[in-house]
């Protein structure tokens, strides 16, 4: 959620306990802003006052919210795969991440959602929610590799789609969203979403006992107020980060002085317990998710400040599934990064001055000890994290947090920085930054005007090294040495066509890049266009999904070993690294499955006219890396296509490859496209059976 700056609000007096004000003269307070200081439970301003101030400010700031709605949540390196079968590709070893599939070597769990299945569409007609959309399909693999469905488990009848699932032992955790809508009539429209207050927000966390997957049972179900931001699992404990903005019945968008008076009194009279998120368990018992005593506000908050939403960090043990433990902060959060002992909540405060954006980002650190969540420290850095896979810009190593930020834009120039922070008391203090006075080389190529016009496409940390990819017309790969965290420096760089949007370290010597190819002619034409006086803002043509194998054995001289391009194709790995399947083999090689989608055009004649018919190709490309450093090879072993030649009238319509996944088990390959599965074998890729 981007923070909206409210202008024209004058400091007057507090909302709560203001002895000099009366109901005919409601207060005007400081503008809403993101908390950029350490947090505390013990300040001169209470949590109740802070959130009520925020509610009043939001309701009284006429003209700063669009009618289309402004409340939306935003949502180190080896896969935990064993030698026999693959698992979810992760950022940090030991910290599991939710995905739409999980596999334990025998049972494959698939989160079913609406991917255009005719049967599901039929189920949805006239219904508020669809059971078919919120079920988990359970497939069993036999000893000979055959796979078949043994159950289709409805998780929560109120949910609309499954966000992610976790598997730990005999427990399966399913997280799903619940869509509620709030409307009002106005003079200009008979149906309009409430403009400044959010709709009701809820999501569901259900934990299933899958000790007998064919006869699964609900162990616990929690319907929680708020919008899910993200989650992680460490051992048996799931840590869930969600945002919640309270709504007050009867509160209106204040357009007149009398509206402000009414809002002021209504908010002031509302009990604080009514402004906090709750949850409902499977016995329909409603309980508070968090108490006001467990909520942190900015350390320097005054009684003139306020913020109208909270971020909650909740822990639950999947094995017991009986109690939720939560803390909250009364500020905004855009994303999370987690190590085995800490969770970092981060966000960016966007301000504007003299037509320029001034971005400041904040990071709040919480320490984890089983179900105990304790606030540790906060810090700020210049710049933003951007949106796509922003958690990959973070890495915790020993006592240091390394994080990459970006300021500026293409026209004024980007400033990309590697920041190193260390906890000192309740502060995350900056101890080093790159570029700096000694190592002043900028990250990103400079143009003829002397500014960096390349934005960051990918960041990945691996041990004491950071890899950063920037792009405008070519792909510079920068290698950052962090062996001394207090003295980072660029040790090497490489420039090749196209770009990598995701980087997968394979070893200290090998790095895999996945992104898009751009041919040399397109680059030349684009560069010439940029130099034209007209300054037409165009982007180079995307030529196809590209996979590149890099040799990084010499950090001062990285090189491209080889690359493979899937012409006119797109891979969702560019935006979600969970789509990449990765399995290290006992012989030292690596196997990969890369989902690719591309469109074919067939020209047919209808009467006197020729018509282009578009049809999609969805497949997983099978890739293998063998050898080490300069002797390594990258080979395309073949592709498994998602085809359906049946005449079944209920077979799916077009299904996007956005959520495609694959599983390796020994030499067997299972390709999940939509809600169905195709099966093949590593040594006979063209022999495909399915869909199942």
Topology readout:
Elements: E1 39-40, H1 47-60, E2 101-103, E3 107-111, H2 118-124, E4 135-141, E5 147-154, E6 161-168, E7 171-179, E8 183-184, E9 192-193, E10 201-209, E11 217-225, E12 227-234, E13 237-244, H3 257-269, E14 278-280, E15 286-288, E16 295-298, E17 310-317, E18 325-329, E19 335-338, E20 342-353, E21 356-369, E22 372-382, E23 394-397, E24 400-409, E25 413-424, E26 427-434, E27 455-462, E28 465-471, E29 474-481, E30 489-497, E31 499-505, E32 510-517, H4 520-531, E33 544-551, E34 559-567, E35 581-584, E36 590-606, E37 609-626, E38 633-641, E39 661-665, E40 668-673, E41 676-681, E42 684-689
Parallel strand pairs: 16-18
Antiparallel strand pairs: 1-16, 2-3, 3-4, 4-5, 6-7, 7-10, 8-9, 10-11, 11-14, 12-13, 13-17, 14-15, 17-18, 19-20, 20-21, 21-22, 23-24, 24-25, 25-26, 27-28, 28-29, 29-30, 31-32, 32-33, 33-34, 35-36, 36-37, 37-38, 39-40, 40-41, 41-42
Helix pairs in contact: 1-3
- Shape verdict: globular
- Low-confidence runs (pLDDT<50, min 5 residues)? 1-21, 62-83, 118-132, 181-198, 530-538
Radius of gyration over C-alpha positions, nearest whole angstrom: 26 Å
Strand content: over 45%
Largest sheet properties:
6 strands, mixed
């Amino acid at each position: 959620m981007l923070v909206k700056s409210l202008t024209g609000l004058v400091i007057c007096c507090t909302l709560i306990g203001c002895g000099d004000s009366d109901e005919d003269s409601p207060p005007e307070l400081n503008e809403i802003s993101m908390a950029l200081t350490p947090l505390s439970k013990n300040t001169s301003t209470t949590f109740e006052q802070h959130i009520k101030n925020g509610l009043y400010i939001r309701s009284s700031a006429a003209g700063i919210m669009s009618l289309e709605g402004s409340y939306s949540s935003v949502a180190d390196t080896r896969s935990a795969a064993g030698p026999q079968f693959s698992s979810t590709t992760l950022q940090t070893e030991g910290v599991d991440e939710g995905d739409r599939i999980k596999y334990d070597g025998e049972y494959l769990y698939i989160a079913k959602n609406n991917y255009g299945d005719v049967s599901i569409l039929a189920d949805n007609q006239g219904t508020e929610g669809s059971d078919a959309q919120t079920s988990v399909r359970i497939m069993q693999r036999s000893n000979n590799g055959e796979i078949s469905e043994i159950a289709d488990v409805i998780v929560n009848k109120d949910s609309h789609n499954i966000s992610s699932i976790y598997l730990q032992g005999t427990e399966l955790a399913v997280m799903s969203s619940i869509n509620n809508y709030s409307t009002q009539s106005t003079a200009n429209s008979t149906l309009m979403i409430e403009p400044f207050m959010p709709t009701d927000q809820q999501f569901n966390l259900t934990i299933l006992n899958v000790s007998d997957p064919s006869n699964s049972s609900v162990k616990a179900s929690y319907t929680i107020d708020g919008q899910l931001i993200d989650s992680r699992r460490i051992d048996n404990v799931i840590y869930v980060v969600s945002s919640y903005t309270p709504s007050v019945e009867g509160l209106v968008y204040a357009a007149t002085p009398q509206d402000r008076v009414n809002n002021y009194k209504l908010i002031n009279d509302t009990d604080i317990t009514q402004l906090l998120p709750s949850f409902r368990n499977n016995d329909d018992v409603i309980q508070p998710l968090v108490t006001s005593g467990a909520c942190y506000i900015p350390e320097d908050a005054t009684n003139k400040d306020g913020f109208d939403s909270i971020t909650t960090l909740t822990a639950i043990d999947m094995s017991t599934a009986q109690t939720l433990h939560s803390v909250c902060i009364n500020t905004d959060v855009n994303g999370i990064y987690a190590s085995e002992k800490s969770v970092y909540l981060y966000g960016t405060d966007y301000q504007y001055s003299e037509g320029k954006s001034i971005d400041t980002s904040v990071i709040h650190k919480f320490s984890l000890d089983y179900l105990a969540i304790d606030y540790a420290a906060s810090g700020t850095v210049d710049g933003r994290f951007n949106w796509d896979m922003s958690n990959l810009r973070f890495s915790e190593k020993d006592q240091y947090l390394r994080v990459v930020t970006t300021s500026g834009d293409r026209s004024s120039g980007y400033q990309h920085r590697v920041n190193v922070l260390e906890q000192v008391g309740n502060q995350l203090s900056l101890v080093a930054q790159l570029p700096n006075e000694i190592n002043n080389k900028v990250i990103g190529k400079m143009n003829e005007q002397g500014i960096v016009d390349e934005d960051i496409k990918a960041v990945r940390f691996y041990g004491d090294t950071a890899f950063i990819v920037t792009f405008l017309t070519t792909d510079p790969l920068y290698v950052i040495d962090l062996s001394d965290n207090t003295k980072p420096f660029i040790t090497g760089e490489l420039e090749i066509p196209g770009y990598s949007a995701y980087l997968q370290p394979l070893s200290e010597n090998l790095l895999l890049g996945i992104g898009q190819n751009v041919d040399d002619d397109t680059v030349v034409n684009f560069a010439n266009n940029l130099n034209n006086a007209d300054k037409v803002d165009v982007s180079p043509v995307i030529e196809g999904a590209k996979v590149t194998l890099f040799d990084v054995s010499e950090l001062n001289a990285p090189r491209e070993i080889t690359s493979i391009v899937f012409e006119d194709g797109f891979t969702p790995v560019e935006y979600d690294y969970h789509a990449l399947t990765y399995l290290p083999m006992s012989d030292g090689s690596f196997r990969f499955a890369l989902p690719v989608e591309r469109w074919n055009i067939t020209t047919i004649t209808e009467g006197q006219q020729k018509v282009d018919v578009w049809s999609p190709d969805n497949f997983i490309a099978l890739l293998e890396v063998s050898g080490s450093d300069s002797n390594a090879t990258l080979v395309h072993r073949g592709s498994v296509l998602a085809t359906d030649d049946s005449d079944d009238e209920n077979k799916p319509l077009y299904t996007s490859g956005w959520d495609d996944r694959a599983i390796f088990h020994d030499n067997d390959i299972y390709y999940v496209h939509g809600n169905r599965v195709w099966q093949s074998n590593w040594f006979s890729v063209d022999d495909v059976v399915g869909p199942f």
